[in-house]
Amino acid sequence: MKIDFWLRNPDYLAHELLTEVEEGRQPPQDTLLLVAGMIGGTAPSLHRYPMAKYLYGAYERPDNALALLASRKHIKMLRVNESSANARKDYYLLSKGQAAATALREQVPPMQWYVRQAEAIGLIPEAVSGGLMRRRQYEHPGYEAAVNGRLIPEITEEVTKRAEDVAGRFGLVWPPGSSQDVADGGPQT
Q1: Which residues face 100 on adjacent strands?
Q2: What are phi and psi of 93, to 5 degrees?
Q3: Could you give the 3-state DSSP secondary structure of residue 93?
Q4: 3-class secondary structure, 186
Q5: What are 29-87's pLDDT values in tens digits?
Q6: How many other C-beta atoms lie within 10 A of the C-beta of residue 47?
Q7: d(CA 163, CA 17)
């Protein structure tokens, strides 16, 4: 669920990427281009799919969507440590699922946006563990203050302002690819 939250809420992912820039773990220019794509006009119409907060963070029952994928033999779910209080479910992408994902990427151009989102999540060091991601997500006051059972609020406006500030600190123009940026010899998008 933690990775799913960042995928479905690009404003929070953009916020985390800006933190990576400020802490010197990601290059400013490339990362600001990613951020602009997440919160700017290049996102597909269904790029934000809010999630409700429940007890330990963003949550949504995955059963229906995953049942559909399992019924088509795209994924396989295995329960690990069923007898333990820490039982979990591991999901494996099967070859039929990989083929379907590849076909979607090639045949449905808006899917590339989601591929880029997933790749951007990989730039965040905490993306290797649900507990680490949860801790990092709770560092944002809006996420932490969200009421259980209610949607986690959008922060696009806050992130846009922050991106402008970060760009200014690194001598870059926000948004990247603006006419001023191009006039200064910066990246053209």
Answers
A1: none
A2: -80, 125
A3: strand
A4: coil
A5: 999 999 998 887 666 555 566 666 666 666 556 666 788 888 999 999 888 877 776 77
A6: 19
A7: 10
Cα separation, 173 vs 181, in Å, equals: 6
DSSP string, 110-126: THHHHHHHHHHHTTSGG
H/E stretch holding 185: none
**pLDDT tens-digit readout, 106-159:** 999 888 888 889 999 999 998 888 888 889 988 999 888 888 888 889 899 999
CA distance readout (Å), 41 to 2, 37, 64: 25, 7, 31
Assess whether pLDDT exceeds 80 at residue 102: yes
- Per-residue pLDDT tens digits for 164-176: 999 999 999 999 8
Of 91, 96, 95, 36, give the one whose Cα is nearest residue 72.
96
What one-character DSSP code corresponds to residue 146? P
Whole-angstrom Cα distance, residue 23 to residue 5? 22
Confidence grade of residue 183 (pLDDT, cut at 50, 70, 90): very low
Distance CA 13, CA 121 (A): 7
Alpha-carbon gap, residue 29 to 48, rounded angstroms: 24
Please give the single-letter amino acid code of residue 173: V
**What is the DSSP code (8-state) at residue 61?**
-
Contacts of 81 (CB under 8 A, 6+ apart): 87, 88
